[in-house]
Design a protein that fits this description.
alpha/beta, binds adenosine-5'-triphosphate, globular, four-stranded antiparallel beta sheet
Amino acid sequence: MLEIRQLSVRYGGVSAVRQASLDIAAGEIVALVGANGAGKSSIMKAVSGLVQPSAGSIRLAGEEIAGMASHRVMARGVALCPEGRMILGTLSVADNLRLAAPRRRSFDDLFQLFPRLAERSDRLAAGLSGGEAQMLAIARALARGPKLLLLDEPSLGLSPLLFREIFHLIHSLREQGLTILLVEQNVRQALKIADRAYVLAGGTISLEGRAADLLHDERISDAYLGLQREE
Ligand code: ATP
C-alpha cells in the first residue's frame, strides 16, 4: 500500500530523516520506533503532506504522493492522528466528528467503536479526560473512512486502563482491515501489536524486521525496552 524510498526531510539546516525506506502492505500494522528526535513524526508528516520531503519517493497504491498537498493525500485515503490530540475544545464531541467528516462515516458506526464518546457526544471536548480526548482524536481521523491510518503516539500520557483500551481499539481496527503506521513510545506494546517494525536512529532506519523477532532482539531490548511497563 505504501512504499517509501530514500526519503529525506530537512528543516532548514536540520536533517531530520535521511534516506529512509519502508513499506507497508495492506492490512498490516507497522510500528516505527526510536528515541525522541529520531525522525518518526517527520516521516508521518511527509507521508501526510504536512512537510515537503527534500528527497525521495512516497508511493501510495503505486501513485507518487511525495510533496502532494495534505488535502489531496487525505482524499486518497490517508488519515493522520497527530501527536498532541488535535481536537476542538470549544465544540461538542459530536460537532468535532461532524466537522471532521461531513457525510462520510456514520456516527453510529463511529460511536460503536467508541462507546465512551457516544455517552459524551453533547459534552464540550475541552471537558474530556486525556484518554477520551485521544479517542476523539482517533475518531476524527477515522471519520473519513481512511485506508491508511498514521497514528502518532496514541498512548501518550494515558492511564494504564485507557492505555489498554487504546491498544484494544488499534487491534480491532486492524481486524476491520485498516492499515496502520504506528509511532509509539511504548516499544514493547508497539511490537506486540505490530506485524513488522522499523527502528529509526538519528533519522536513518537502523533495524527492521518482524515485530515478534524484534521483541526478542537484544539491540532493541538494551536500547528501548529496559524500563517500560508491561501491560
Ligand atoms: P519525538 O519522539 O520526540 O516526537 P520524533 O522521532 O518524532 O521525536 P521528529 O519530531 O520527526 O522526531 O524530529 C526529528 C528532528 O527534527 C529533531 O531533531 C527535531 O528537533 C527536528 N525538528 C522537527 N520539527 C522541526 C521543525 N519544525 N523545525 C526544525 N526542526 C525540527
